[in-house]
Specification:
The structure is a homohexamer. Chain A is mainly alpha-helical. Helix content of chain A is 66%, strand content 0%. Chain A contains 6 helices and no strands. In chain A, α1 packs parallel to α3, α4 runs antiparallel to α5 and α4 packs across α6. The longest helix of chain A is centred in the C-terminal third of the chain and has 24 residues. The termini of chain A are far apart.
Chain lengths: 132, 132, 132, 132, 132, 132
Amino acid sequence: MPTVKMVEYEDASPEVRAVYDDFMEVRGTDFVPNFWRTIAAHPPTLKRLWEGIKQVMAPGRLDPLTKEMIAIAVSATNGCEYCIRSHTAAARKLGMDDETQGELMAVVGMFNQTNKIIFGYQVDVDEAFMGD
Amino acid sequence: MPTVKMVEYEDASPEVRAVYDDFMEVRGTDFVPNFWRTIAAHPPTLKRLWEGIKQVMAPGRLDPLTKEMIAIAVSATNGCEYCIRSHTAAARKLGMDDETQGELMAVVGMFNQTNKIIFGYQVDVDEAFMGD
Amino acid sequence: MPTVKMVEYEDASPEVRAVYDDFMEVRGTDFVPNFWRTIAAHPPTLKRLWEGIKQVMAPGRLDPLTKEMIAIAVSATNGCEYCIRSHTAAARKLGMDDETQGELMAVVGMFNQTNKIIFGYQVDVDEAFMGD
Amino acid sequence: MPTVKMVEYEDASPEVRAVYDDFMEVRGTDFVPNFWRTIAAHPPTLKRLWEGIKQVMAPGRLDPLTKEMIAIAVSATNGCEYCIRSHTAAARKLGMDDETQGELMAVVGMFNQTNKIIFGYQVDVDEAFMGD
Amino acid sequence: MPTVKMVEYEDASPEVRAVYDDFMEVRGTDFVPNFWRTIAAHPPTLKRLWEGIKQVMAPGRLDPLTKEMIAIAVSATNGCEYCIRSHTAAARKLGMDDETQGELMAVVGMFNQTNKIIFGYQVDVDEAFMGD
Amino acid sequence: MPTVKMVEYEDASPEVRAVYDDFMEVRGTDFVPNFWRTIAAHPPTLKRLWEGIKQVMAPGRLDPLTKEMIAIAVSATNGCEYCIRSHTAAARKLGMDDETQGELMAVVGMFNQTNKIIFGYQVDVDEAFMGD
């Protein structure tokens, strides 16, 4: 149970309902996940995040699957269950199989390891990594 | 200055030197970055991490550039300067341009945002995201 | 179930019971939350944290509601469910409504986003922000 | 030195320049901080974040100083120097004195402490904190 | 339910089964915890992590109980329930009592507190702490 | 330069000076590190943290070196340079050599790795780890 009351479609203001409708159309689904119905408790945040995510997740230099895997990497580093499960579900739909997920987890784990060892030893940045 | 003395090639034991040599051959460079010369203060860790990184970063389902970008996503989430700069340098060599880096940063930022809002509201995981 | 046995009022030593009594009097409640009954497994920590929290949460330049909202911001950033729920319950009692909570979440989300983008690009601090 | 080239006003596209101009007008300053000139390397992110921050930081239920202090709490929890210094500078302008900053730091420190102890003992959420 | 299917002993490839057998022999148990059966979905990660953990957790300058308590400190800082519970169970077997766990939690809490206050005030490192 | 003015011994109030004097006596040093002179900007926090750290770091079930190493583990996980350097300097004085530090870093790195992989796969806690 979230810490605010979720806004159901039936009870939504026209502004909130417009976001829900756009979400279902863009994503091609017939349900609005808990995340969106929860942040709808604050409509300007709902609208801003939906517009932002549409922009950020649109295909560009990075394809949608790569973007979902980056989202999983961030979410695993932060330990956010909702985020891990929703982005994993999305990545699965886009073709991520067990082998790919295994490589992703291996990379995420390895660099969380080295990040903390580098902190622990306070390694200086090499000149060669400083760019021009 | 790191919190241990870095091990220079000249002073390295044969075991450490073997890792340095393999590193330079595999990466095609003629220098050993500070990270490796620092963790060489504990040779079993040096050897274990080098063998591990070779395995993890080898091409597989994910190509090397995607792996470097995932490493950047993890490192930006953790705030590790050394890690961000070294993986950014590596990704640049593999073809990451400003536009691609911009999309990567946008994805990293967005999902750090949503991760924390989801924590803050304690959103429940949707059944649809729980897999079969 | 916590990883140590909680200390119930009936089983508490006089030292622990004195903290429980003070807690219920100061907070005006008739129950001692799980947090306190858990850390009571180590009485010096119980006493130190209770005295510390009384000092830190007393009204000062910042009013109690603002302090609870800062606690929520910290707890959402760390992803601590117990902490988010207990501070949200406290903030609600002090008058936080959905609109206020929505603004709080928006601020918490936004700056977690910018924190990580700033890490990712390694932005230098402007002279103007360095103080005198 | 950031990992991308900052975009100076003189070199900026009209789209980027419009954000810079709006920033300076809204904030009443005559310079554009490094953060904005860095993310300008990816114009859609520049525009999205500036529009978002204007929305999030506008006065509402929470006043601007409270919002800046929440931003400091998030940034201190994440350890982002740029963020801590820029939001501290902003909060100072809005009236935060040493005493207020001291209380803010005390709250931030205390709840980072309790967050981690609560994780460490795996304390269960009390029914009383679960809302209705 | 994890995001991949766990690999049961009966269904395991010889490579995975060899790790399970070695795990049970080294640890002197007759079951393979969920962690190992989950990462077995990616056999090279299973093998690498098991070999790594055997190396890292072997007695050396630090005894096994100290290593488990360090693992608890890391896991409490990250908020990983599985990790906290599994390392606490291991530390208990090695002799950690409530009093010892209480001291461990006190240290973990205190330095998470000071870490974030030090970030918040941006305290400079003293010359005396920089080593020679 | 910290975000508040440090309080020098000459300028300190009797209350602050008493903490400085006690610090130097207990630690057997003739200087007060930047951390203490910074938080002295808020005297109640100075006094509370000093009394707390004296309690937490006193020898008990865990010896002082073990406590310093746990502090390093926490600080490396959080990436706090000041904290890593000051606790490493303290641990060195108490006898931590390169080999011991190397084992500590190996443990810290390994469990940051497994913590995040466990998050990423959302591994369920085994019954056997839940205690009685």
